[in-house]
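Structural prep section.
Before we set up the soaks we want a predicted structure of the protein with magnesium ion in place, mainly to decide which crystallisation condition to try first. Input record follows.
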Amino acid sequence: WHASHFRRRVVSLRATRAEAPSSVPPPPVGGGKAAAAVQAEIVEAAAVWCAAHGLVVGDRENPRSGTVPGVGLVHAPFSLLPTRFPASFWKQACELAPIFNELVDRVSLDGEFLQGSLSRTKQVDDFTARLLEIHAKMMAVNKKEDIRLGLHRSDYMLDSETNSLLQIELNTISTSFPGLGSLVSKLHRTLLNQYREVLGLDSERIPPNHATAQFAEALGKAWAEYNNDSAVVMMVVQPEERNMYDQFWLINHLKESHGVTTIRKSLAQVEAEGQVLADGTLVVDGRPVAVVYFRAGYAPNDYPSEVEWSARVLIEQSSAIKCPSISYHLVGTKKIQQELAKPSVLERFLDNKEDIAKLRKSFAGLWSLDNEEIVKSAIEKPDLFVLKPQREGGGNNVYGHDLRETLIRLQNEQGEALAAYILMQRIFPRASPTHLVQGGVCFEDLTISELGIFGAYLRNKDKVIINDQSGYLMRTKVSSSNEGGVAAGFAVLDSILLT
Ligand code: ADP
Ligand code: MG
Ligand code: MG
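Run finished without errors. Recording the tokens verbatim:
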């Protein structure tokens, strides 16, 4: 949790808030001391609920919290009450999930498109180049993935300028918080019921959130398609992971509801303990692996040496189901997002005109930096744009003054330096005051929110087994902060109250 990203304005429990605008739930009724006491009580009840129900993360303060389960736990950062969200936009976002799932699948099959679109990026971005190299290797041996599993999350913000729902990005690798996301919805429902008298909010207006169960079901069904009873699911994880409880929620669900065992391994462990048998079976630590589920491997830091890259190649060469495959991974890059937003490109991959129109309506302005006009506009008005490299995990984008400086520098560098980035229209969600709880302390600040819709997709050859919207995750951050990652320490977990 970076203190610098939150103005640490601890709300004095005596101070009552100014009347909240209609965009947030009203604070507890009653004046002065009474309201403050109720609020303190709700904060405590919420923190207790988190501890008792596993809505927890490893505590930064404890050095063992990222490696030893059960040690150094703290409640996940959360917003005290759900954020209001218009039902019409909620419905729109849910409807998009299966269409994006299908789009990812179709695009993943077009290796030439992926290689072509990323060919210039490759020259200046070593990480993307390494991923493309693996992809090219698989194309060269005509590797086919008959069983394809996608566990995605498409993120949106409501743009106040245009009053529309616009996509921020589509994550196809290591989409986090299905576990804790479901729990936050439960926490909020519990609080609304428990404090119904004072809050006056209907818990039924928080949509059900079964992300854990649905992702576990997708993993379980994928495992079943692989059809080897002795095989396991292998979750590829970072050696240190403070968000491990989000992962354990899935692991436990998979075991309890589907009888499937999961092993957690780092890429280095996969390299040391893994092999691919002559028939393509991936064996790690003596166990055949049916499904490889990546909760690591999306960032350069996950590949500190050649060892990790060897592991990634080993996995890709095997017959295990990869979530994601290298193709699915590449479809989720910012560059591909920008290419798909170009005129006539969606039509190459989808047939249904209505579906195409729905997707396009959610696209913000996206540009490649070989568009000189746009680069010029962005230098003139940097606040209207976001500059994005091909990275995941938050904290990588460039804004405002830095955006202008970076563009000018890259232009002067000549060559292909600009090709490492894309430009995106900056989205301006309306800010509203929210109570954020972190480390047992409640703050009030102006916040903006980003709604992530989980999507699960599973197919075996021509048979589509799952194509669903699979729960959601609201993330709320202080409006003065540009980035939005919860794990990165910029945002809190939240849910929604439909209006
Ligand atoms: P990452 O893959 O690192 O999560 P994102 O594209 O989601 O990359 O960007 C990180 C964060 O930056 C988002 O969660 C959001 O808060 C902010 N952001 C990204 N794109 C925009 C945009 N077009 N307008 C406003 N904020 C944005
Ligand atoms: Mg991302
Ligand atoms: Mg993101």
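Observations: Residues 1-25 have pLDDT under 50 and may be disordered.
Flagged for discussion at group meeting.
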